[in-house]
């Protein structure tokens, strides 16, 4: 299997191991082995004890497949690459510190929201009549 064809993954919540094997072209026994090798690949098990994969895990399997079969990395090399990619994504999520004006505005919004929350927590001064009763 060559080429870097973009894999279309159906929009489902969970996939059984057979479905993942069909989608990715990776046999089920290899998927089970990869679970033992790659910490990021940890599918849950359903009430019957069957593995159920989420979409992001199927995407990870496709990434592992590319690293091993197309980029020809070893298992250790693929693990290192995935670790580097995860670290890079985490660094991209770091936001710069807001400027003083933004901090002041955020504090004011928070104070207003706290005031609203306190107002909502106070018991109502007017007792409410139960619905559905005719007087």
Account of the 3D structure:
- The chain is mainly alpha-helical.
- The protein has a single domain (9-121), classed as Multidrug-efflux Transporter Regulator, Chain: A, Domain 2, CATH 1.10.1660.10.
- 56% of the residues lie in helices and 5% in strands.
- It has five helices and three strands.
- The chain has helices spanning 17-24, 28-37, 55-70, 75-93, 100-121; strands at residues 15-16, 44-45, 51-53.
- The longest helix is centred in the C-terminal third of the chain and has 22 residues, at 100-121.
- The protein is flat and about 70 Å long.
- Residues 1-5 have low confidence and may be disordered.
Q: Notable features of this structure?
A:
135 residues; mainly alpha; Multidrug-efflux Transporter Regulator, Chain: A, Domain 2; three-stranded antiparallel sheet; 5% strand; flat
């Amino acid at each position: 299997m060559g080429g870097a064809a973009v894999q279309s993954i159906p929009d489902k919540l969970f996939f059984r191991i057979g479905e993942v094997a069909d989608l990715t072209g990776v046999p089920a026994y290899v998927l089970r082995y990869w679970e033992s090798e790659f910490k990021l690949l940890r599918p849950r098990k359903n009430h019957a004890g069957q593995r159920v994969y989420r979409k992001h895990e199927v995407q990870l399997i496709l990434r592992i497949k590319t690293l091993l079969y197309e980029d020809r990395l070893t298992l250790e090399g693929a693990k290192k690459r995935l670790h580097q990619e995860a670290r890079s994504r985490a660094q991209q999520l770091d936001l710069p510190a807001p400027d003083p004006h933004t901090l002041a505005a955020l504090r004011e919004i928070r104070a207003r929201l706290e005031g609203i929350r306190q107002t909502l927590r106070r018991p109502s001064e007017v007792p409410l009549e139960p619905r559905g009763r005719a007087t």
